[in-house]
């Protein structure tokens, strides 16, 4: 796990990324304005728990630069890393909880060997299952599609 | 008579003028006194003569007028008598002329009747024979035309029968073809309708199934299906280039 992955381990969805980007911007602002000798002291209680935890971990390991300009560059690089994370578009019939998102995200990480951000959208019409789009590939694994296929097959059999 | 009367009056006037001029021509030159006396005497005499002349003239005129009146009366009477005679003669002559015209007309009419009767008799004979001839010719023509018409009708009957038979066949074929076409169309329509109904039924079934399944699934089951879908995608190598 590289230094950036400490920050992204709890990021699963596009919403998470968006919120994390906001955290980066907040932290960037604190580099110059906030009082404190370390970066952790500057951001403590002002950023999310995960962000603060990640800063704490890296700082304890001495992996965070101390100079404000260097910290700024670090945050820039972190922002670029997050933005470049591969994404998969998934349509679901229900609103997934964090646990389930973590499970799915873990499944992708395990299967593909890398962090994947889930771009989730809700589509109750699909009834169940999912519709997935990844790197130009599209697959409909929805229950709606499966029901229609069954009906078409039945219809075809009756017509024949 | 009127002319005679006018001439006599004119003659009297001329006579009077002549007497006046005679007296005037007899004047002789004498002394003034004598002349005056003579003039007076003459004047008196002249006056007397004039009076006498006037009297005489009056008498003459009166007599002339009487004569003229008498002559005029005679003339009117004669005229009337003459007119009456002419009228009588005219009536007589007209009556005679009318009788003559009537007689002549009657004679001519009788003669003409006789003449016409004789001509009519002659012509009737001629007409009868002509009519008879023409009737015979007509009868022959009619018979000939009848035969020809009969033949033509028979021929026409045959043709009509043939045409009718052909038309019947054509109609039969056309009806059969149209019936087949309509049957085909009905069959096609029926199939299309059945397909449409089937489609609607399946659509309905699909909607019901989706709704009932969607309601029936809980979160855990939803999640399980998604994870199964991921495995399916993996099996289909969706994530591997």
Report on this model:
The complex is a heterodimer of chains A (160) and B (241). Helix content of chain A is 57%, strand content 15%. By secondary structure, chain A is α+β, with helices and mostly antiparallel strands. Chain A folds into two domains: 3-84; 87-159, no CATH class. Chain A has a four-stranded mixed sheet. In chain A, helix 2 packs antiparallel against helix 5 (68-84). Among the domains of chain B are: 2-125; 193-235. Helices cover 94% and strands 0% of the residues of chain B. Chain B has helices spanning 2-25, 32-216, 219-235. Chain B is elongated and about 205 Å long. The model of chain B has no long low-confidence stretch (mean pLDDT 79). Classes of the chains: A alpha+beta (160), B mainly alpha (241). The A-B interface holds A 92-94, 96, 100, 103-104, 107-108, 111-112, 124-125, 127-130, 132, 134-135, 137, 139, 141, 143-144, 147-148, 151-152, 154-155, 158-159 and B 195, 198-199, 202-203, 205-206, 209-210, 213-214, 217, 219, 221-223, 225-230, 232-234, 236, 238-239, 241.
| Relative helix content of chain A | 55-70%
For the largest beta sheet of chain A, what order do the strands appear in spatially? 2-1-3-4
Please summarize the sheet with the most strands of chain B. none
Low-confidence stretches of chain B: none
Shape of chain B: elongated
Helix count from the secondary structure assignment of chain A: 7
Specify the number of helices of chain B.
Answer: 3
| Mean pLDDT across every amino acid position of chain A | 92
How much strand content do the residues of chain A show? 15-25%
What class do helices, strands and sheet pairing of chain B give? mainly alpha
The low-confidence runs of chain A, each spanning 5 or more residues with pLDDT under 50, are none
Largest sheet of chain A: 4 strands, mixed
Distance between the ends of chain B: 174 Å
Give the % helix of chain B.
Answer: over 70%
Largest interface (CB within 8 Å) is between:
A-B, 33 and 29 residues
Structural class computed from helices and strand pairing of chain A:
alpha+beta
Distance between the termini of chain A: 58 Å
């Amino acid at each position: 796990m590289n230094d950036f992955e400490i920050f992204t381990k709890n990021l699963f969805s596009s919403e998470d990324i968006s919120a994390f980007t906001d955290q980066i911007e907040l932290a960037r602002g604190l580099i110059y304005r906030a009082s404190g000798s370390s970066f952790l002291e500057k951001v403590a209680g002002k950023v999310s728990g995960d962000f603060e935890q990640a800063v704490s971990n890296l700082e304890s390991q001495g992996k965070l630069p101390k100079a404000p300009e260097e910290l700024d560059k670090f945050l820039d690089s972190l922002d670029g890393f997050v933005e470049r994370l591969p994404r998969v578009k998934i349509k679901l019939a229900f609103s997934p909880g964090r646990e389930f998102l973590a499970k799915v995200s873990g499944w992708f990480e395990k299967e593909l060997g890398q962090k994947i951000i889930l771009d989730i959208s809700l589509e109750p019409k699909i009834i169940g299952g999912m519709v997935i789009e990844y790197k130009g590939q599209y697959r409909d694994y929805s229950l709606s599609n499966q029901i229609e296929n069954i009906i078409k097959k039945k219809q075809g059999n009756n017509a024949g | 008579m009127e002319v005679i009367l006018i001439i006599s009056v004119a003659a009297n006037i001329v006579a009077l003028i002549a007497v006046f001029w005679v007296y005037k021509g007899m004047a002789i030159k004498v002394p003034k006194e004598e002349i005056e006396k003579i003039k007076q005497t003459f004047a008196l005499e002249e006056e007397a003569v004039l009076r006498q002349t006037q009297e005489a003239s009056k008498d003459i005129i009166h007599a002339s007028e009487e004569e003229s009146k008498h002559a005029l009366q005679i003339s009117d009477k004669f005229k009337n008598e003459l007119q009456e005679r002419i009228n009588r003669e005219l009536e007589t002559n007209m009556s005679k002329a009318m009788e003559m015209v009537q007689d002549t007309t009657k004679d001519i009419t009788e003669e003409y009747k006789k003449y016409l009767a004789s001509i009519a008799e002659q012509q009737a004979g001629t007409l009868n024979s002509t009519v008879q001839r023409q009737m015979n010719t007509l009868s022959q023509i009619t018979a000939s035309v009848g035969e020809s018409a009969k033949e033509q009708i028979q021929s026409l009957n045959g043709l009509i029968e043939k045409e009718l038979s052909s038309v019947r066949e054509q109609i039969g074929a056309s009806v059969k073809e149209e019936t087949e076409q309509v049957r085909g169309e009905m069959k096609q329509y029926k199939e299309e309708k059945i397909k449409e109904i089937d489609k609607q039924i399946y659509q309905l079934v699909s909607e019901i199934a989706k709704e009932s399944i969607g309601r029936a699934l809980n979160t855990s089951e939803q999640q399980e299906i998604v994870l199964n879908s991921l495995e399916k995608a993996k099996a289909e190598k969706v994530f591997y280039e």
